[in-house]
Amino acid sequence: MVDWSSLETVFLDMDGTLLDLHFDNHFWLEHLPARYAEHYDLHPQEAKDRLIPMIMAERGSLNWYCTDYWSERLSLDITGLKAEVGDRIGYRPHVTDFLDALRASGLRSVIVTNCHPAPLALKLRRTGLEARVDDIVSSHQLGKPKEDPEFWQDLQGLAPYRAETTLMVDDSFPVLESARSAGIAQCLAVLAPDSQQQARARHPEIPCIHHFDEILPALRKRSPLPSGR
């Protein structure tokens, strides 16, 4: 499923890959519509009927992920509202074991996320995730989402890598397809990003897992890279 022996770098998505996507799904589909209804004195269903199409229209763009964009467009403090349900932020199963095994293997681990810096900071405060990886890059630093094929070339400026020795792990099929098109040698899809929802169907071409325990044994057998990698 993964050829660990050929790798130097592992790029990791955050939401839905390392962290439970339930937090984000609950916020955008339940909490935000409820607070939007309160703010604008709307029936809850009317609020959803207004918000969901508005949000979905931005899917795949940087605006889809941009807290500043939605705060301005909705005249609401999106980061503040996210903090109201911050207790729902948490790791997916087996993630800390997987990250510990990555570190022990000597592989370089970099979170590559579309998450905006403001909610990213909230999630890091809640999880301490930054201490478990070598680096974190937000697509907002590059001005384009991971779905954009040009993202991967621009990423070289912040997290230099060799595509032929890199693995990308993500729960988004469009992101993984973008990474493959950019020459990333190995891609791996996560099928169960939200602990409160059923797993999705497999991608026809990209290897898939439900949880990291499926690939932990092989990773732990990998010999550490020599120092000075």
Automatic annotation (TrEMBL):
GO terms for molecular function: 5'-nucleotidase activity. It comes from Marinobacter metalliresistant. It is an enzyme of class 3 (hydrolase). Its EC number is 3.1.3.5. The gene is yrfG. Gene3D superfamilies: HAD superfamily/HAD-like. This is GMP/IMP nucleotidase. InterPro entries: HAD-like_hydrolase_sf, HAD-like_sf, HAD-SF_hydro_IA, HAD_sf. Keywords: Hydrolase, Metal-binding.
